[in-house]
């Protein structure tokens, strides 16, 4: 998604705003066929992350929020699967997920 966006920006000379983390979360939950309850919980974690992790990429925030939700929710969505669709490392996802859990419970 980001590669396409950069290519279009280079070709047109116009730069666009970053893709919101919510869009990445929607994409990841669709690809992984995540249950609605887990997707809703992930959105809640993503909202909690909004201010706590400024500077993190939107796709990393979405992946971390999804892992936090999957880890506490269904247990069916693996961290490896989230890493694969998000192109983020397991370490980065775990750090963001831990922050999401802390911020959400605060």
Automatic annotation (TrEMBL):
**A Pfam family per the record:** TFIIB
Give the matching InterPro entries. Answer: Cyclin-like_sf, TFIIB_cyclin
Q: Which residues form the Transcription factor TFIIB cyclin-like domain?
A: 19-96
Q: Where are the transmembrane segments?
A: none
State the superkingdom.
Answer: Archaea
The molecular function GO annotations come to: TBP-class protein binding
SUPFAM superfamilies, from UniProt? Cyclin-like (SSF47954)
**The protein's name in its UniProt record:** Transcription factor TFIIB cyclin-like domain-containing protein
Organism equals Natrarchaeobaculum sulfurireducens
